[in-house]
Amino acid sequence: MTAQNELRLLPWLGPEGKPCYLSTDDRGGYMSRLADNIESEQLDTAAELLKQAAESLGDEPTSLGDIQLLAKELTEALQDVLRVATSRGDLLARSEPHDL
User: Fold this and answer.
1) What is the C-alpha to C-alpha distance for residues 78 and 27, in angstroms, rounded to an integer?
2) Which domain of life is it from (predicted)?
């Protein structure tokens, strides 16, 4: 059984917008691989939105509606990326030897 401090933060939210965690010792299991794939898709989406933002905010005028939509999508992507970073940071911290 996995200890409480070894739970993996998953890249999606559960009921009522609360974080979801995975308790498993099998990093190659179905749910771990699913989480890895979703994290990868979320990072790809964020990178694409960042590219789109750079283009939209360039020299050409952009409508207020387009900017508002882009800001909403970037906010959602940033939330996903922060969740991925937190999850991966937690995994790294557990795998590194600790100096006492």
Assistant:
1) 25
2) Bacteria
pTM: 0.76
Residue-wise pLDDT tens digits, 77-96: 999 999 999 888 877 777 76
Q: Which residues of 52-82 are buried (b: 16+ CB within 10 A; e: fewer)?
A: ebeebeeeeeeeeeeeeebeebeeebeebbe
DSSP string computed for 19-84: EEEE--S-TTSHHHHHHHHHHHHHHHHHHHHHHHHHHHTSSS---HHHHHHHHHHHHHHHHHHHHH
CA dihedral 25, 31, 35, 40 (to 10 degrees): 100
Element (DSSP H or E) covering residue 87: helix 64-95
